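Problem 3 from the worked examples.
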Amino acid sequence: MRLNELLGHRVLDRAGDDIGGVADVRLVQDGPLQPSMQAAFRVDGLIVVEKHATRLLGYERHVGPALLRWLVHRRLGAVWYLPWQDVAAVTDGTVQASSGREDLKPLEEMPRY
């Protein structure tokens, strides 16, 4: 599976309730050393948007002009981070989480790296 195939998938919590759509994939470069002398990337988690799985431009965090942030949050709804270890299954069009909506962290609480 290619990472871009995950974009737009609906995310269901452990009870089967719709949480939102996958808007982005968070990668961390801490894998084994590659022939290019760079560490490989691994999937760290998914960015899940409540209302519309759309392209994120950074305004979902607390950066940028207040009015623009307000408009983006109004359109997107809540933006959560789903750690990859909490992904139970990926099927056609859906991602099944092993955690509940209440267990997800808001994206703005996640450290940037």
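Problem 4, a separate protein:
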Amino acid sequence: MDSRPHTGIPGTTLFDGEQARKGYALNRMCFSFNEEANRQAFVADEEGYMRRYGLNEEQADAIRARDVLQLMAAGGNVYYLAKFAGIFKLDMQDIGAQQTGLTKDQFQARLRAADHA
């Protein structure tokens, strides 16, 4: 039996030591996006930039799909992934919509409804 805390939350990827090791290259690449020159280099040549950081195929496929949930499953840490999402003008509501399987408009409507409940 797994004794790690929070492992039984359906649909949740626990970012633990194993995920940190798995996502090291991905998170390192996303951290590089703190610098504008690196964001520009990524946009100019995504494939070359991913190779430069040694992303595996699962991570590269998730980057190509712009799928933050896939990136989290591939070892991505949400704080680093926010740097990646920002390149494409995605915000936390876009990510929340992905997490819930809703469109952004539907997700925003859900947030407004909860505000008035």
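Solution to problem 4. The chain is about 65% helix and 0% strand. Residues 104-115 form the longest helix (12 residues).
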